[in-house]
Write a structure and sequence with these properties.
alpha+beta; Ribosomal Protein L24e, Chain: T; two-stranded antiparallel ribbon; two-stranded antiparallel sheet; 4 strands; 52% helix; 17% strand
């Protein structure tokens, strides 16, 4: 019986101490920090998938080869695709 009373008192003591530390800003609740909102998840996405205009492959934008033609930003997955695209569309851009 004494053990049960001791455990109950220890539990409530912990809850009171946790509430005091939480108000003072020292203790952060683990369950609240694991929750994610829409705003925080969008900040963690650091790259966008784009499609190569020549070979139609999707790849991360940061890994692509960028060129700007007539104000249009184009991203290619490789120099081979970029050169093939420019050879095919070369007459339009001259």
């Amino acid at each position: 019986m004494r053990l049960i009373i001791f455990l109950v008192m220890a539990y409530f003591g912990f809850k009171v101490l946790k509430a005091i530390l939480k108000k003072s800003g020292i203790f952060k609740d683990i369950s609240s920090s694991s929750k994610t909102s829409f705003k925080t998840t969008t900040k963690k996405i650091d790259d966008v998938m784009v499609q190569d205009p020549f070979c139609k492959v999707y790849f991360p934008k940061r890994d692509g080869i960028h060129i700007k033609i007539k104000g249009e930003d184009l991203y290619f997955c490789s120099n081979t695709c970029k050169n093939s695209y420019l050879d095919k569309k070369g007459d339009e851009y001259k």
